[in-house]
Design a protein that fits this description.
With about 110 residues, the protein is an all-alpha fold. The protein is built from five helices and no strands. Helix 1 packs across helix 5.
């Protein structure tokens, strides 16, 4: 699986976990979900990759990063959404690792 596919899959899983559909909506809860997903992906992806899957410019992702700590402390519901998106990302990594190990095992035993 190519990196772009993995990034898309991780974003899709996080979006599904939060009930979010990428787009240009500026509805309060939608913006929170988009920011939470972006910040959960941040340790693993660059700002261009995140922006691409969330339909945002790299500079928006940078803005989210710059304000993340403030949002965590003061924006009601954001922290919970961020943690859900983070867990979804970790689950995606584990599932992909499991699938890769299964593939290698099947190739070795066939």
């Amino acid at each position: 699986m190519k990196r772009k596919e993995v990034v898309s899959l991780a974003a899709e899983r996080a979006c599904n976990a939060l009930g979010f559909k990428p787009g240009k909506s500026r509805i309060h809860r939608t913006v929170q979900k988009r920011m939470a997903i972006a910040m959960a992906m941040n340790p693993y992806c660059d700002q261009y990759e995140i922006g691409e899957v969330l339909h945002r410019h790299r500079s928006c992702i940078y803005h989210y990063l710059k304000n993340h700590d403030n949002y965590m402390e003061h924006w009601d519901g954001y922290k919970e959404m961020y943690h859900i998106a983070q867990l979804e990302g970790q689950i995606t990594k584990l599932v992909l690792a499991r699938d890769e190990i299964k593939k290698q095992f099947e190739e070795a035993t066939s």
